[in-house]
Amino acid sequence: MLDGSNPKTGKIWKKVVLQFTYDNHTSTHEFLVSPIGSHAAILGIKWLETEKPKINWPLRTLTFPIPTPESAYIAQEEEADDNPLEGIPTQYHAFAKVFGEEEFNKLPPHRSYDIEIELTEDGPLNSPLYSMTDAESVTLKQWLKDELKAGKIRPSKSPISSPVMFVPKKDGSR
């Protein structure tokens, strides 16, 4: 993803080489195909560094340091994989469904043995509050929103929360 980590909503399906042509400028880039939640596409850091577009953040638009293109098109696109089970041993084909996007984005059904932990007043846990930067708070809220929407988590009734750690990446992001 943007920070070089694996996508949180699923595995990377394949790499696709796309060739873009606008005016007399042609560029070819490799993109990863993966379910990325509510985003239509993510243009990676490598693409941004190579193409150097001018970004208008308030309008959320990109312009390029060349004249405005009259048309842009995809010149090369790979076909979807007709047999996603190819290369997977036959004895595991029956379990392929659990690795698909549909199953990945939902919780298993409730069962008679679902476990709920009720905390008592006799055992309050005291722990210090951890401060977050504004950016960390926004990141956490967006992650929670995406995970709730995907059905991977549900709201808690607990008066106690767990600390959240943001680990710095090699590029300085968290």
From TrEMBL:
Disordered: annotated span: 154-174
TM helices/strands, residue ranges: none
The organism's place on the tree of life at top rank: Eukaryota
InterPro entries, per the entry: DNA/RNA_pol_sf (IPR043502), Peptidase_aspartic_dom_sf (IPR021109), RTL1-rel (IPR032567)
Alphabetical list of PANTHER family matching this protein: CCHC-TYPE DOMAIN-CONTAINING PROTEIN-RELATED, LDOC1 RELATED
Protein name (record): Similar to pol polyprotein
